[in-house]
Design brief:
Layout: H1 27-42, H2 46-56, H3 61-76, H4 78-86, H5 98-113, H6 118-132, H7 135-148, H8 153-160, H9 168-175, H10 180-192, H11 199-207, E1 214-217, H12 224-231, E2 234-235, E3 242-244, H13 254-257, E4 261-263, H14 266-276, E5 286-289, H15 296-306, E6 311-316, H16 319-328, E7 340-345, E8 358-364, H17 379-382, H18 385-404, E9 406-416, H19 425-433, E10 438-441, E11 465-466, H20 469-472, E12 478-484
Parallel strand pairs: 5-6, 5-8, 6-7, 8-9
Antiparallel strand pairs: 1-3, 1-4, 2-3, 9-12, 10-12, 11-12
């Protein structure tokens, strides 16, 4: 008999239910949950937080792939899932504890977008909440997810999105999980580039597709054919240096481990090629990457420069990012790779070099990043229209400074990972309007292999180049080419 005043083991608590049995939580789901927390609490980027958390939870192979898709997919579709969850709870979404809401989003993604049986999606999410939040919210989680599982994703969108005829922007925002202002900005970008308005759905859908892992073979350090043979990958169609990986950890590739290759979106490779391949008269000895962090474009430019006997200077405004640039431009023993003259930390709007120093200059300007939502899905929830107002003056000053340090006859590429006109053609037009020593050139001649990439024309009618995720399967990189006169 139990002692007086003590409950028998497993007996119901007075006035309540017996405690639920403790079950271990699946490590892959724990890792995904920790990624969402890092993004929400620490302002982390998912693609940077994931590798450390995968290692922390001991995940490799299929388990690592499951955790990656669960975390990244949940972040991409967060707007849609929030609308669904809001329809399934008895309180405003703002009143749901943030830790519980993270778990509900993960459960919704499993129920609506992954091939996870309903019972497994619900029970594992309940276990996760019980372990990380508490027993009380676990019952709430169970009830909400059972309601979520009553309909498929398409049915939920029809139920919770605004009417497509009366509010097409609102419908697209919910259906494709983008903030309303981002939908409007991307629609405007398509229109300014002369593209069909019907492409908007395809563009938004492409933002929600996991991007392929793409490597760049840095010329003179590893050949693309060698990289294809080592990885079992396939050559990219647009960049002569790119390789699409079939899967696996790119860091396990020897060429990547020793810096001869790197992970780099094909669109970013094309930006570097737009600068290196543009025809140039006269001296071609000194190149500059003015906004070099984190170093991917600089590493490709350095390899291309070395092949011509030119030298690259790399500048980055923030010291912690300069560390990344230096790492990308160094051999395993710490020495700078061939083709690199210097790696410095400095204000790009007031560069340390004398006017007319460089023959080719890249301005990969800080921007909203709305062209890279495939790879940084959380960015869509962080950015605001006010960010554009803050970024545009900086972009103009950077382009002006780049032109100042370029010699007469030299070339400047202005690039952004955004198609939004306010930070692309409108920046270039504003700078051109204030100078009489610069002319615009069409960048297409440097990239003749890239089809269907006409960007918005500048005020003087000169063409620009615009890549699109739904057309080129790259980030939405913008390129304008300028020449000092």
């Amino acid at each position: 008999m139990p002692e007086p005043g003590r409950r028998r083991p497993n007996a119901p608590r007075r006035g309540g239910r017996p405690p639920a049995p403790r079950r271990s939580v699946d490590p892959a789901r724990l890792a995904a949950y920790d990624v969402l927390r890092a993004v929400r609490v620490d302002g982390a980027y998912a693609n940077l937080a994931l590798p450390d958390l995968l290692r922390k939870h001991g995940l490799t192979g299929r388990d690592a792939g499951f955790a990656t898709e669960l975390a990244s997919g949940t972040l991409r579709r967060q707007g849609t899932y929030d609308a669904v969850v809001a329809a399934c709870v008895d309180r405003p979404l703002a009143k749901v504890e943030a830790k519980v809401l993270d778990a509900l989003r993960l459960g919704a993604h499993q129920l609506l977008a992954m091939r996870v049986p309903d019972h497994a999606a619900i029970s594992t999410t309940v276990d996760l909440v019980r372990a990380r939040v508490g027993q009380g919210p676990a019952g709430f989680t169970n009830a909400v997810l059972r309601r979520v599982g009553e309909h498929d994703l398409a049915s939920w969108v029809r139920r919770v999105a605004p009417d497509v005829a009366g509010d097409p922007v609102g419908f697209a925002a919910v259906a494709h999980s983008h903030p309303r202002w981002v939908v409007s900005a991307l629609a405007h970008a398509l229109a300014r580039a002369g593209r069909d308005a019907g492409e908007l759905d395809a563009l938004l859908a492409a933002d929600n597709e996991p991007p392929a892992v793409t490597l760049v073979a840095r010329p003179g350090r590893v050949g693309r054919d060698e990289l294809v043979a080592a990885t079992g990958g396939t050559p990219t169609q647009l960049s002569p240096h790119g390789v699409l990986l079939p899967g696996g950890d790119p860091g396990a590739t020897d060429a990547v481990a020793r810096g001869a290759a790197g992970v780099q979106d094909e669109g970013s490779q094309l930006v570097a090629l737009a600068l290196s391949e543009a025809p140039l008269d006269g001296r071609d000895e000194r190149w500059l990457d003015l906004c070099a962090g984190p170093g991917g474009k600089a590493a490709l430019l350095a390899a291309l420069a070395a092949g011509r006997g030119a030298r690259l200077s790399a500048n980055e405004a923030q010291e912690h990012r300069t560390v990344l640039v230096r790492r990308a431009l160094s051999e395993p023993d710490g020495a700078l790779v061939a083709g690199v003259d210097e790696v410095v930390t400095g204000d790009g709007t007031a560069p340390r070099w004398e006017p007319g120093t460089f023959d080719r200059v890249l301005v990969d300007a800080p921007c909203s990043g709305l062209g890279a939502l495939r790879r940084r899905p959380e960015s869509r929830w962080r950015r605001t229209p006010g960010d554009l107002r803050d970024l545009v003056p900086l972009q103009r000053r950077l382009l002006d400074a780049a032109l100042d340090v370029t010699r007469p006859g030299g070339l400047v590429v202005y690039a952004t990972c955004s198609p939004v006109p306010a930070e692309t053609v409108e920046v270039v037009d504003a700078v051109l309007a204030g100078r009489d020593d610069v002319r615009a050139l069409a960048p297409g001649a440097a990239l003749p292999q890239v089809p269907d990439a006409a960007g918005p024309a500048l005020a003087d009618g000169t063409a620009t180049l615009q890549l699109w995720p739904h057309v080129h399967r790259t980030d939405a990189m913008f390129v304008a080419l300028l020449q000092r006169t």
